[in-house]
Amino acid sequence: MKNVLVTGGAGFIGSNFVQMMLERYSDLNLVVYDKLTYAGNPDNLLPVAKNPHYSFVEGDICDAAKVDEVMRRHNIDTIVNFAAETHVDRSLMEPGGFIQTDVYGTFVLLEAAKKYQIERYHQISTDEVYGQVLEGRSVETDCLHTRSPYSAAKAGGDLMCLAYYTSFNLPVTITRGSNNIGPYQYPEKVVPVFVTNAIDDKPLPLYGDGRQMRDYQFVLDHCDGIDVVLRKGKIGEVYNLGTGSENTNIELAHLILKLLNKPESLIQPITDRPGHDRRYALDCGKVKSLGWQSQHNFEQAVEATVKWYVDNEGWWRKIKDGRHYQEYYQRQYAGREVNK
Ligand code: NAD
Ligand code: TYD
Fold first, then answer.
1. Pairing of strands 247-248, 213-214
2. Which of 191, 214, 278, 333 to mutate to test the pocket of ligand 2 (most atoms within 8 A of CB)?
3. Quick check: CB of 90 below 6 Å from ligand 2?
4. Neighbours of 134 (CB within 10 A)
């Protein structure tokens, strides 16, 4: 691993990964390849902008000619694919872009990986591909029972990666991470929506009964797990990455309000998300055998995240003040309030 193409590296997890890897290793060159959709933000990469081992190329993973050019020009030996449309609620509004990027875009990258016979293709996937898990925990060999256009598209990407391993011997690995929280998360996902709304004394829109459960992990723990799998993971294998414990959204809302010293009356129940998965839960035993485990529990991860949003108001206000965000927020939340 020397010249790494980080697709989707201007987004939330990708930018944390790039910063972490450049701090950790002085012998790696990282090339971020990103379309800069609404979720891609050059500000996320400002801390590494002057690093001589970092470069940025604006481009779409569905653009095979441009992907080919970047592979050749930078002598890429490893692809880590974070690029995706990622928000479940948006996938309910406009699923087409999810199929295009998360399935077709993955195929384009796999073809490039095959052509250039690279050392490793690593796919960033999600616990959502297992579908909701009402009891027990998902292991990597479980069947995929996706229920949203987002998770179905991600599952399509995973299956294409495994097909390239089986059919063409491509050196593929996949990680399936649980919900990430931390610096630079676009304020459409639940934690930055709740934190930034609470700071402004605005309602926290809680879907349905708020008893859905997620495994909220700190983003840098997830990035560390990806690095462990890149270095020690077995080719052709899938690894779950999470804390291995879950909390409800109502617990999340209470903790955020407590940390910010805001009243619980800010919690505003709203009509539920259609097809809302009740619970995701991962068995992370397989990756533990590689020596990785999450370093932050739920409270620590939420506390570190809240602190970052308090300390970095300029980052999220620039997004929230923009027309794109305000139109999205209106479309997503207006008129959904139900009586408390
Ligand atoms: P994000 O939405 O913050 O960022 C996605 C990035 O991909 C953006 O920079 C965007 O510009 C880029 N992108 C989108 N379409 C592209 C295209 N066609 N070509 C090139 N770039 C494109 O997402 P995130 O939360 O950082 O998630 C990154 C990856 O991790 C995704 O694959 C997601 O499915 C997966 N994942 C996310 C979570 C989570 O909790 N956020 C959990 C598990 C897995
Ligand atoms: P989200 O951050 O969208 O991640 P995902 O649906 O991919 O797990 O949502 C996390 C949980 O929070 C999920 O159960 C839906 C819920 N949620 C709310 O209650 N209110 C919100 O405004 C959002 C965005 C999510």
1. antiparallel
2. 214
3. no
4. 10
CATH match of 3-180+216-241 with 3.30.70.1350: no
CB 149 within 8 A of CB 96: no
- Whether 11 contacts 33, CB under 8 Å: no
Tens of pLDDT along 83-137?
999 999 999 999 999 999 999 999 999 999 999 999 999 999 999 999 999 999 9
26 Cβ neighbours under 8 A, 6+ residues apart: 53
Where do the DSSP E strands lie in 2-119? 3-7, 29-34, 54-58, 78-81
Residue 178 beta carbon below 6 angstroms from any ligand 2 atom: no
Q: For residue 69, what are its two tokens?
A: 């050019």
pTM: 0.99
Q: What is the CA(189)–ligand 2 centre distance, in A?
A: 6
CA dihedral over 56, 60, 62, 65, signed as positive or negative: negative
Q: What is the CATH number of domain 187-214+247-276+298-333?
A: 3.90.25.10
Q: What is the pLDDT of residue 117?
A: 98
Distance from the CA of 294 to the center of ligand 1, in angstroms? 21
**Where do runs of H (alpha helix) occur along 51-148?**
64-73, 88-93, 96-98, 106-115
Residue keyed to tokens 């995973």:
158
Task: Write down the domain spans for the chain.
Answer: 3-180+216-241, 187-214+247-276+298-333
- The tokens for 132 are 């909701």
